[in-house]
Design a protein that fits this description.
By secondary structure, this protein is mainly beta. It has one helix at about 5-10, and strands at about 20-25, 30, 40-45, 50-60, 60-65, 70-75, 80.
């Protein structure tokens, strides 16, 4: 696999556009910053919880979903799904 393919397949595993309602598929954290550091964790997002997403932000090669309340969660399709 080439470097371009790895980067391309990684990008496909993240939502890169599309605001609206998203559901948590696997437990994850919500953060107060696009930088996902332990000290920035605000709450645990349990499977089944729903968020209204108002923006999608790219940070250091990964994408973050910005919630209506201003928190950030992963845009990784393994953890969230657009509904």
């Amino acid at each position: 696999m080439t470097t371009a393919s790895k980067s391309s397949s990684k990008a496909k595993s993240y939502y890169r556009s599309g605001t609206g309602l998203y559901r948590i598929k696997k437990d994850c954290y919500a953060y107060k910053s696009v930088k996902f550091d332990k000290d920035k964790r605000v709450e645990v997002c349990r499977k089944g919880f729903k968020f209204t997403i108002v923006d999608i932000v790219k940070y250091s090669g990964a994408y973050r979903l910005k919630t209506k309340s201003g928190l950030y969660i992963t845009a990784n399709k393994e953890f969230v799904e657009k509904i």
